[in-house]
Amino acid sequence: MIRIGEKTVRRLLMAAAFSAIGGLLLIALFIFKEGLSFFIETGFRRFLFSDVWDPQSGRFGIFPMLVASLWVTLGAMTLGAPLGVSVAIFLVEFVPRSVMRVVKPTIELLAGIPSVVYGFIGVMVLAPFIRSSFGGPGLSLLAASFILGVMILPTIISISVDAITAVPASYREGSFALGATRWQTVRMVVLKAARSGIIASVILGMGRAVGETMAVIMVAGNAVKIPHSPLDSVRTLTANIALEMGYATGRHREALFATGIVLFVVIMILNTAAGVMVRKRVSGKRG
Amino acid sequence: MKTPKSLIRILSFSVLSLLSAWTAGCRSGKSSVTLAGSTAFQPFAEKLAERYMLIHPEIGVTVQGGGSAVGIQSALSGAADIGMADLVRLPAEAAELQPVTVAKDGIVIVVHPSNPLSGLTLDQIRGLFNGTIRNWKELGGSDAAVTVVSREAGSGTRTSFEQIVGGFSLTGDAIIQDSNGTIRETVANDASAVGYLSHGLLNEKIKALQVDGVDCTVEAIQAGRYSLVRPIFLLTRGAPTGAAAAFIEYVRSPDAQKVIGESGLIPAIQ
Predict the structure, then answer these.
(1) Mutation for testing the B interface, residue in A235, A245, A253 having most B CBs under 10 Å
(2) ipTM of the modeled complex
């Protein structure tokens, strides 16, 4: 057997760690290098707040996509966040641990379903249902929100479960000792103590919803316009990049990279916010 | 998981170009031809390349996709010997390329089979796609809002369609799908949808409409009676030479044109 020295292992692990960080840095550098000059030339406001996207005539305004991404994400959160957090509370507080040990991995398995499968179900089942019951083209903001709401459930549930489980049993016991019912304990003690972790789970879910592409392309309809109702077809920032990448050359390509910068910044903000929330929880526990 | 088709297209394109450059270097004494571009013509080019290599084992033919824009770019940069493009009018930057027409493709206007209309005029098509006709009853159909389905900006099919119909910009309400296949599925699933796609991809789930009273058939396209037709070009930088010239000549030969005709496109040479 070959014995590997402590130092060698240390170096190998360090190299692995730095290659991951280096990859992220290179990607960031590349996106900014390709898109930043366009951003500056076109002007911040004209790129972000003009509502005409017509690559053929050289007009690049991503406002409709920005609004669409916002609404789709908001819709997904409206469905996913309350549902996910409720499931987490139920699993930790109202179900025996042995049941949770089976149910939680099953829910996490949902995260492993490829997004194209979610999209396919959306196109085949959800869109026709929306079309026949509410009207409109079916491929819509509502369909995209619904599909994304389901897709982010595993993220929200598993992180919320961890956060709620981490609340010390003594908190609950103290509450029960004061005569609080189970629901009062959950509402007034457990949720308060696990708050930052739950918020972090929601923010991470939001990050996933903003970044999801394939399922959204399939169910949102991709029309470039500011939606006036949930039944309107919309195009998100991610869908815009993916749809037009194959053809884009010159300024058009730069515009797509600039769209990438916007997305990158949005997701960085969300992830940092989630990180701050988690850190708050840890330091709160120490104090 | 989050890689859509177009991204995969680009990635596989770059990987393939690297690979083909590498293998070309290894195969000394064997000349090679690389084609890249139009995804509409790619399957046909692949089929023809196979047949050609059976007859001429000394020449290696590599076919890559990427779309018409990639075809033009790679012919210009020399990344491919031959670019493939399916546009009615080639863009200005393609001026220094020499185009050869190798096939034609009809663009069919399609609706749901339950749609009572049997045909449209070019004016009506323009009205539907620029958003001035918003309800099927304006055209004598049922009282239902029109769902316009189109391809993404830059698609060869969309560019050709817009150039032939002319004088309109697509309505912002249009649903955008990124392939002929998904256009077909969307129209097949929506009773009030109207879309357009390549003639070779028609099936029984959707209904093709006459344009100005003419059905989109091979005969009508060849006779020049059907108006929504786009040519498919092979592009070379300057006059083709060597193996590239030989392959283009083969694609225009009766044998190859017969293969093109049998598999759904319309031969350029009768």
Answers:
(1) A245
(2) 0.76
